[in-house]
Amino acid sequence: MPRSAELPYHHVADVLADPAVPAVYEAILADPRPSRRRLVEAGHEPEAVDIALTVLHVRDVIDATDPEAIEVAPPDVAIPAYAALLERQARSLRLATAGLAQTYHRVRTPLIGEDSGLIRRLGSFDEVTGVVEKLEESVRHSLYAVVAGGPRMERIVAGGHSAIHPSESGPSVEALAVIDASIFELDGAASEFSRRQSFGYDIRVGHDVPFNLLVVDRESAVIDTSNTDPECAGSVFVRDPTLVRALIHLFLLMHEAGMPLPSSATATGASGLSERDRLILTLLAAGTSDTVIARQAGVSQRTVERRIRAFMDQLGASTRFQTGVQAVRAGLI
């Protein structure tokens, strides 16, 4: 190989588009006994010949191990083979792009905990509460809430947090909420969420809700972990569009899977059941105990047990769980 064979491979790549390379290649094809000396004698610059021989050798279109006795592969075989190699390299490069981009953005994006403008760690209960209240005050189009529990939820149920009135926030504010069944262990939970329904909230009851969540106007969100950590460790304020969309998708799945909380606005409903009976069935289907159901419905535990037994007989169910499932299927809740 000529001395240019000692050039680093990245330098070879830099000269792939050098017009001297195809010119030298054409001269090699036209010469029955090509060599470096004959190429130079034909008028090609020595340095250009050295670079071209190195590049063509790397491409496997010639064998320039001995530059004075160059072996040439048929171009109709060598060039398609080289093109296939380039295609494989291009595919590998495209596959590597995502990982490279992730590395690039990871080292240039502020860590969570710094105010990047897209994601910010919330370091205390007071900070979470302050951000949530500011978001609620700014709502224009939609408000999605997940209530899993924790001190802020206890404050809400105790009446220490004013409910947003969707009808007053704008002409078409969409207010949806999912509350965990465990919230009903708090005295007054049923009446508080019934009050919020009267303001225009569409409330569903879920089970094993993982964390508290608030999404406002599909633009900003707060993940509140106070239900698992009183210090709110891991709570974040989010404005990153991709993450907000993912949280919205998760919320809508939870809302669709939840059971509607009975509303006093439709006290008898299509089922003919009273609001109290529908509340009993809803909390039953959510897995709450008779004691909790009695406290929320404002009746004795014996009354709850009697109503559940009547529903079991009516629906042909043999267990409490089956009663809840059959009530949903029958459209009673």
From TrEMBL:
**SUPFAM superfamilies for the chain:** C-terminal effector domain of the bipartite response regulators (SSF46894)
Biological processes annotated in GO: regulation of DNA-templated transcription
GO molecular function per UniProt: DNA binding
**What does the record list as coiled-coil region(s)?**
none
Question: For the HTH luxR-type domain, which residue ranges apply?
Answer: 266-331
Q: Does the keyword DNA-binding apply?
A: yes
Q: Which InterPro entries match?
A: Sig_transdc_resp-reg_C-effctor (IPR016032), Tscrpt_reg_LuxR_C (IPR000792), WH-like_DNA-bd_sf (IPR036388)
Q: Which UniProt keywords apply?
A: DNA-binding, Transcription, Transcription regulation
Q: Which domain of life is it from?
A: Bacteria
Pfam families associated with the record: GerE
- Name the chain's protein: Putative transcriptional regulatory protein
Its ancestry begins with: Bacteria, Bacillati, Actinomycetota, Actinomycetes, Micrococcales
